[in-house]
Amino acid sequence: MTGAATGLVLGSIIGAVATIAGSYFLFWRRRQAARAHLRQAFETELDALSYVDEMADSGNYESLTGTVERPVVYESNADEIGQLSGEEVEALVSFYTDLYWLRDQQDIEDKKERVHEIVQKRQRALAAVREHE
After folding, report:
1. pTM value?
2. pLDDT by residue (tens digit) across 43-84?
3. C-alpha torsion angle, residues 95, 117, 106, 48 (rounded to 10)
4. CA of 118: how far to CAs of 1, 84, 104, 108, in Å?
5. Which end of the chain is more exposed for a tag (fewer CB within 10 A), N or C?
6. Are 114 and 64 contacting, i.e. CB atoms less than 8 angstroms apart?
7. Burial class (CB in 10 A: 0-12, 13-18, 19+), 95
8. Which residue spans traverse the membrane (predicted)?
9. From the centroid of its chain, how far is CA 44?
């Protein structure tokens, strides 16, 4: 009788531990997949914004301010950005903050250096996201 009770308790403990381990593994995999999807979305948007580099390099500063599109991925996922690494978060927030600044400018001619800094920040953000894939 004692052996049966011990076996029942031991079996319950092993089952509980296996369930907990399986649940944690499933949670961890889903979180990894969510991060991968988030990185892919940011990489796609940052690639799509490469025209900022091209326009800055060709000196089209005036038309650049009216051309910059609303960053849909950033706005839709700003609350999820904390799932990424510190380096990625810093690079993304820095770039998108400056992108909003660029969109709001009326007279950009005297701020050409800052436009080129934005180009560098986009490239840095893209490299940070790609590095952690």
Report:
1. 0.82
2. 999 999 999 999 999 988 888 888 888 999 999 999 999 999
3. -50
4. 75, 21, 14, 13
5. N
6. no
7. buried
8. 6-27
9. 11
